[in-house]
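## Example record

The block below lists the input lines for one assembly entry, exactly as stored, with component labels intact.
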Amino acid sequence: MNYELLLREHHLKVTPQRLGILSLMVDAGHISVEDLFAQIKQEFSSISLATLYKNINAMLHNALIKEIKVPHMKPKYEVTKPPHAHLLCQGCNEFMDIDINVNALVDEASKKSHYQLLDSSIVLCGYCEKCQKQSV
Amino acid sequence: MNYELLLREHHLKVTPQRLGILSLMVDAGHISVEDLFAQIKQEFSSISLATLYKNINAMLHNALIKEIKVPHMKPKYEVTKPPHAHLLCQGCNEFMDIDINVNALVDEASKKSHYQLLDSSIVLCGYCEKCQKQSV
DNA sequence: GTATTTGCAAATGATTTGCAGTGCT
DNA sequence: AGCACTGCAAATCATTTGCAAATAC
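Predicted structure tokens for the full assembly:
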């Protein structure tokens, strides 16, 4: 993925810190501020938390990235993708996208409520295959 | 609703503060810590924020109530109900339950992922009928 | 060259903790 | 009686802000 272009398309100047943030975020899929800071410090030992927060906010503002609020966890951030749902394993904390038909749900909600729906935030919680077996 | 019984069933002692919290939470449907504190102070002028937080955490721990994390807003709390979805209007901040078929979505996700799914957190965002008209 | 971004330090805001006194069962 | 709950004050943690120096365009 071309992160320079991605930043320019969203009217943000290209800086090494921002390229690093995007690259780590894409690699991780979803990442918390804390984890992102720990990882990016390995590349830019001088980066400050304030810079990280400012950049996350700038990217949120331009919808380059999206904040996902997860029950009982710190918020996570992902580079914006088409509507999808998330799965959280309460055993091992695995957190992943799942490709299911979100549209059907949104359409139904829209019809019933007469809302014009633009965005969805869906997290399904439970236990992954591995953790189900271990908990027996 | 019998709040005393509800507390006892969840192994929590009955105190006037807790009865007040539950009553306000049920009346509001969903409420933030801030709003809850403002409202409960009218009844118990001496209640402290620390007590409110401790009680919310105790009730969360026993699954008497549930935390709902809403994009761009402070978390809200509701007394536990059967699985459902939420609607948020980005114009007027109306926040409400919507009765749609969450099961279909959960089943699909479960089949695809082999997760055992126990809980869902669903917020759909957009504009209510009124706000759609006003924004023209 | 100008405007924006960075990194630091300090400020703010939200939530938690420790403790002494009070209330529930 | 004994343990849990309350309220206060202080502590902690996450995030934001102001500012001077550095960087992007």
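Helices of chain B lie at 3-9, 16-28, 33-43, 49-61, 102-113, 129-134. Chain B has a mean pLDDT of 95.
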